[in-house]
Every structure is written in C-alpha cells, then in structure tokens.
Amino acid sequence: MSWSPESVKRLNILAYIITAIVLLVVASMRQIKIESSIDFSFLAGFHSSLNAFTGVLLIIAYIFIRKKNIPRHRQLMSAAMISSLVFLISYVLYHITTPEVRFCKEGAIRTLYFVLLITHIILSALAFPFILFTYIRGLTNQHPAHEKMAKWVFPVWLYICISGPVCYLMLLPCRI
Question: Which residues contact 133 (CB under 8 A, 6 or more apart)?
C-alpha cells in the first residue's frame, strides 16, 4: 500500500495526540479513584501477562524480520500494538479502581525492585511515543527510518515487557 505524505503527516499528528492523552491519563490516574462494586484486583495479573505476551510477540516479530518475512513481521507487530493497547486499558482501569499495593520486603530485594520499577516507569513513558512512531514508519513503508528507530526502540520495549511482569511477581507476596 502506498501512503501519501499527507496521510503520513496525519498519522504522526495522531501519534502526538495519543501520546499526550495517554501520558496525561497515566500521570493523573493515581489521583483518580473510582468506587466500584467490582473487584478489579485480578487485572494486575492480566495486564502483567499481556506485557509478557507482548514481549513474546516482539521476539517472534524480530525473528521473522531477520528472516526477511516482512508480512509476518507486520502481523506480529500489529498484534503487539493491539496487545499493548489492551494492556494500557487494563492498567489504567486497575489503577483507578484498586488500592495501591506497597512493596513489603526489605534489604537488597527492595532496592532491586525499585530500580526495576523506576526504570520500567521512566522507560515506558519515554518509549511510548517512539513505539508509535516506529510502528507508523513501518506501516507507511518508510523502511530506512523504521529500521533506524527500531534498532533502539525494540530493546527498550522488550525491557519494558520483561521488567513489568518481574515487578508484578516481586510484588505478588505483598498482595496477600
């Protein structure tokens, strides 16, 4: 499919708007608390699993692009984007409806947890727009720009997909 420069420009503008909205929602969700008769605490495990699943999709997509199988790579990257969208919805819903769980361990494990958590949060916020722009570059057949961005966006996104579930597993004993 051929994309006009105007269509690419619109997609980029949409990516900026989505980035601003998502970052504002995520930054303010700790202040937004919605009372619900439904216990959404199960979502922590769900969105953690989605994060891990997205990581698996990224690895498989990487394998396919190394084999020059662009159609399969595109399918897997689209699936990773959809998985990430569902993750984001689950993550926000969980945090606006469920009380915060504090890390309950002491010592080196506590330090490790907070290093992972802080790097996960910062990299998630910083990488989000670049993930969108990398996807747009691939979708619109801007292959040199896509490759250039993907070389550093991929490992950061993969780290995010791994560190999130690791933090969840480390926090799990504190939920009980």
Answer: 12, 15, 149
> What pLDDT tens digit does each residue of the chain (176 aa) get?
778 889 999 999 999 999 999 999 988 887 888 888 888 999 999 999 999 999 999 999 999 999 999 999 999 999 999 999 999 999 999 999 998 899 999 999 999 999 999 999 999 999 999 999 999 999 999 999 999 999 999 999 999 999 999 999 999 999 87
- Predicted TM-score (pTM) of the model is 0.91
Q: Which residue has the tokens 């993930």?
A: 131
Cα distances (angstroms) measured from residue 143 to each of 79, 117, 150, 159? 19, 33, 10, 23
The dihedral formed by the CA atoms of 64, 133, 124 and 150, expressed in degrees to the nearest 10: 40
Q: 84 CB contacts (<8 Å, ≥6 apart)?
A: 50, 54, 131
Q: State in Å, rounded, how far the first CA of the chain is from the last one.
A: 52
CA 68 to chain centre: 25
Radius of gyration (C-alpha) of the chain in whole angstroms: 18
